[in-house]
Write a structure and sequence with these properties.
This protein is α+β, with helices and mostly antiparallel strands and 177 residues long. 19% of the residues lie in helices and 36% in strands. The chain has 2 domains: 77 residues, Outer Surface Protein A, domain 3 (Alpha-Beta Complex); 82 residues, Ribosomal protein L6 (Outer Surface Protein A, domain 3). The protein has 2 helices and 13 strands.
Amino acid sequence: MSRSGRIPISIPENTEIKIENNVIFAKGKLGELSYNFKSNAKVEVKDKTIHVHKSGDSITQQKMWGTVRSRIRNIVEGVSIGFAKELELNGVGYKATQKGKILELLLGYSHPINFDVPDDLKIEVPKPTQIKISGIDKQKVGQIAANIRSFRKPEPYKGKGVKYKDEIIKRKEGKKK
């Protein structure tokens, strides 16, 4: 067991943390988030740090101890700094354009794909072949990036498709004559 739950979480400046009935509320310069950790752990705030302790000795409580700590850390980091994912479009004619709250993707299909952007996320298109997704909820940012990537996953022969900026695609050798 890694015991990552024992590492204290430091609270950044201009961030407020409040705990009520097994629900933690975090308010920062970017917004507000909350997380219901049920009875999986004991959480307490001391001197600008958050400490997470096991609530019992059962196996599920021991497993959830580190998970609760990670979720709380993501909430605190999200309301103070935020999260971002970047996608790249590789392929002839592949491009993205933003039209208000709709992201239009041309990915080699016979029709454009119109993707509705949620209100709490921000999507930017700095170049026609780059997409930047940012927001305060780490899970939602990652899920939207995965949904956009799923429209055309990168293929291993030419590398065409939508990929994460730091993703490395294992290339295969094509047919030989």
